[in-house]
Amino acid sequence: MIYLGADHGGYAMKEDIKKWLDRRGVGYVDCGALSFDHGDDYPSIADAVAKKVALQKKNRGIILCRSGNGVAIAANKTRGIRAAVCWNAPSARKSVEDDHANILSLPSDYVTTAEAKKIVRAWLDARPSTADRHVRRVRAINSLLK
């Protein structure tokens, strides 16, 4: 399952991505914000997505805020989460292949909706590498968690 979340800064782009996912037949759950609220805060939204993604290895998430950084930082506080801020399709693909990213973080102020769709497509189509060096590095990342 794919879990989505965005604060007010990423809300409009999240809504566009939902429509795009619907057209592609990709299932998702919207973890919020469920309406535009200029006063909302991203940590609780990113945390909601991260907790859902962490429940099962096959789960993935897409989170958005203006820079992509705030939601990624918040999501990465959850054990088992590897959220990556991606600005283009190649970085999105590599985030999954090399780093086994399970949450994509999009910077809504710095990518267009058309670019975001290309990024999401590349991220969804990518598969984690089973090369020893990548598996070893992901294990090392996981061992850093307290």
What does this structure look like?
The protein is of the alpha/beta class and 146 residues long. The protein has one domain (2-143): Ribose 5-phosphate Isomerase B, Chain: A (3-Layer(aba) Sandwich), CATH 3.40.1400. The protein is 47% helix and 15% strand. The protein has helices at 11-24, 42-55, 69-75, 89-97, 113-125, 132-143, and strands spanning 2-6, 28-30, 60-65, 83-85, 103-107. Strands 2-1-3-5-4 form a five-stranded parallel sheet, sandwiched between helices. β4, α4 (89-97) and β5 form a beta-alpha-beta unit.
Lateral arrangement of strands in the main beta sheet = 2-1-3-5-4
**How many strand units?**
5
Average pLDDT, all residues: 96
Largest sheet: 5 strands, parallel
By CATH, the superfamily comes out as: Sugar-phosphate isomerase, RpiB/LacA/LacB
The N- to C-terminal Cα distance equals 27 Å
Shape: globular
What would you call the quaternary organization? single chain
CATH architecture: 3-Layer(aba) Sandwich
CATH class: Alpha Beta
Work out the count of structural domains: 1
Roughly how many Å is the radius of gyration? 14 Å
Series of H and E elements: EHEHEHEHEHH
As a percent range, the share of strand residues is 15-25%
- Unreliable parts: none
Task: Please state the structural category.
Answer: alpha/beta
Summary, kept brief:
The chain is of the alpha/beta class and 146 residues long.
